[in-house]
Specification:
Length: 266
Amino acid sequence: MGNYVIEGGQAGKERLSLIAEVLQPTTAQLFAQAGLRPGMRALDVGCGGGAVTLELARRVGPQGHVTGLDFDETILALATQDAANAGLHNITFRYADATILAEPPIYDLVYARFLLSHLANVPQALAGLVRAARPGGLVVVEDIDLSGSFCYPPHQAFQRHLDLYAQVVRHNGGNSNTGMQLVELLHQAGLTRIGIHLVQPVFREGAGKRIAQVTLERISSAVTAAGLATGEDLAETVAELAAFAAQPNTIVSLPRIFQVWGVRAG
Ligand SMILES: C[S@@+](CC[C@H](N)C(=O)[O-])C[C@H]1O[C@@H](n2cnc3c(N)ncnc32)[C@H](O)[C@@H]1O
């Protein structure tokens, strides 16, 4: 699967479910603000475990339809099962490579969360997203600015996980600070009426506080393959992150998340 650095499949889906749970309220708010309505046809590119795809399907209702695309066949099969279990019949999950997207221009809303930061050629991928929107349709993206992550008190293992994440994404052609560039990129892609909103969850307990540790576990193979750290070094950092998160008065943030949207000219 190209240069994607985070373990996919079942383990990857469990991490994405954790993230989806934490971000459900702000992503739902984004869809409401962007103008998602019942009856719309939506496309979720790099849909992963499909948590947001299912949310879109509920929001567009039985008169609408959602297509989820990813290049991880295992995660697509799990997402398809989840949609069936949830009784949602207005979803199609299928394989596609987001770097060479060739969807017809039929979608009222095209969405991609945490995809662009992994890609080497973001303008090219974004052009594919824009082409998939119908004239007058919406393109909505969420992506991270890892450099805005923080914990308190400052902690060496937390900083180490940030450094390794940034390095391994860069090593594989991506940019973990893409969020900051999204307004400019959407403008260059020809979108109009561009809007922006910033989200940054912070946790003192609960699922969100474990995301740093779980992320480091899921990038371990890519980190060692790139020669950025040894397995032992990573295991030690994972244990330190877990111990830090277990302390009741420490706080841990997610990256800053940029939510940016625009309209395809009619
Ligand atoms: C960080 S996950 C985000 C998943 C989902 N959008 C979410 O927010 O829960 C990124 C997803 O993009 C997929 N992906 C990465 N590069 C891709 C590509 N070139 N084409 C299609 N999918 C890709 C990965 O398989 C993964 O499922």
